[in-house]
């Protein structure tokens, strides 16, 4: 049972990885990064501990930060 779950998890990760690499960032003020932080800054509390790995994903452009809805907004617009 664990092997089946692990296989599904790996397959889902590979599908997500291939789709993410071929698509553009769907939201404004985002750019693609081949080595983004796992702990991107957000409005609100930041994690005390963050793993140091590179993730391929869309990130906010300089001066912008993720809000609770996953949109990149100016830091000054955080509630």
Structure explained in plain terms:
- With 79 residues, the protein is α+β, with helices and mostly antiparallel strands.
- The chain contains 1 helix and 4 strands, in the order αββββ.
- It has one helix at residues 2-22; strands at 30-36, 55-60, 64-66, 72-74.
- A two-stranded antiparallel ribbon has the order 1-2. Strands 3-4 form a two-stranded antiparallel sheet.
- Strand 3 and strand 4 form a beta hairpin.
The whole-number mean of residue pLDDT values reads 77
Distance between the termini: 45 Å
DSSP strand tally: 4
Q: Give the count of helical stretches.
A: 1
Order of helices and strands: HEEEE
Radius of gyration: 15 Å
Return the structural class. Answer: alpha+beta
Helical amount among residues, as a percent range? 25-40%
In brief, what are we looking at here?
The chain has 79 residues and is α+β, with helices and mostly antiparallel strands. The chain is 27% helix and 24% strand.
Kindly list the characteristics that best describe this protein:
single chain, 79 residues, alpha+beta, two-stranded antiparallel ribbon, two-stranded antiparallel sheet, 4 strands, 27% helix, flat, disordered N terminus, signal, SerProtInhib-TIL_Domain
């Amino acid at each position: 049972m664990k092997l089946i779950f692990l296989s599904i998890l790996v397959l889902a990760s590979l599908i997500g990885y291939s789709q993410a690499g071929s698509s553009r960032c769907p939201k404004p003020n985002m750019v693609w990064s081949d080595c983004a932080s796992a702990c991107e800054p957000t409005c609100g509390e930041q994690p005390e501990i963050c793993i140091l790995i590179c993730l391929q994903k869309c990130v906010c452009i300089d001066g912008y930060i993720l809000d609770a809805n996953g949109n990149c907004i100016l830091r000054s617009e955080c509630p």
